[in-house]
Amino acid sequence: MWDALQLEFMRNAVTAGLLVSLVCGVLGTLVVVNRIVFISGGIAHAAYGGIGLGLYFGVSPALGATLFSVAVSMVMGVASIKSRERADTIIGVMWALGMALGIIFTELTPGYNVDLMSYLFGSILSVPGSDIWYMLCLNLVVLLFVFYFYKELVAMSYDEEFSFVVGIPARALYFVLLGLISLSVVMIIRVVGLILVIALLTIPPFIAEKIHGLPRQNDGARLPPQHSVHPGRLVGLLPVQPCLRRDDYHCCRLCLLCFTRNRCTGR
To answer: Which among 174, 249, 261 is positioned nearest to 215, based on CA atoms?
Structure first.
């Protein structure tokens, strides 16, 4: 284990896994509590449109995915507020539109883009040092945001009408939350790919809510080198591991969701 950490790409992989786990644990809890899982999935898959636009116009695919994801998240946020009855339809349209634009612009881009597969399926072993700094900065922003607006986020998550009555800017916090989810999606794509982003954002908080345990998400890189399974593929499967090991249900009670529920109910 220590010999493997002598290699830079292994250190980057372990660091990326830890940082992604942290942001998924915090934002994923808010995603599940606010019931915006479908919006998060739509943002993740629509990000492919930004990747295709970035490749076509010769800019960084990560930059294109970031800008496109933020724009799509704002549209989905407005749709979920203005037309609640048809919000799921609009989100589904944006989901499909983003994927379609990504495929079209990727096909129109001359040459073969080898790096494109890493955005689809992830590559935790090829995360560069520049992405590590981006992940670190985003984690700091997310943690500071949740820490500073903790009470407001709790009120918005569990009783939106109460938050309006007491003067909490619930809509502003909602759009900021969607923006942070968009930025996090781009970060998670580098690790597990856009297809499995929704798995890391939803499965661990859901299990933690039901069982009060905290699944581990960073064991993908621990697969022995003689196995041919790509580590990035395993990260999306690992959140369901506690379902197969019932002895680990109560091994940890550090989940933000459990703490939030205890605060709200006075326990």
So the answer is: 249
Q: What would the two tokens of residue 88 be?
A: 């799921």
**DSSP string for residues in 183-197:** HHHHHHHHHH-TTSH
pLDDT in tens, the chain (267 residues): 666 777 787 888 889 889 998 998 899 989 988 888 888 889 988 998 998 898 888 888 888 999 999 999 999 999 888 877 677 888 888 889 998 998 888 888 887 665 667 777 777 888 888 889 989 999 999 999 999 998 888 888 887 777 888 888 888 999 999 999 999 998 888 888 887 888 888 888 888 877 764 334 343 344 444 445 555 555 555 554 444 444 443 333 333 334 344 444 444
Q: Quick one: residue 64, left, alpha or beta (phi over 0 = left, psi -120 to 50 = alpha)? A: alpha
- 8 A C-beta contact, residue 207 and residue 200: no
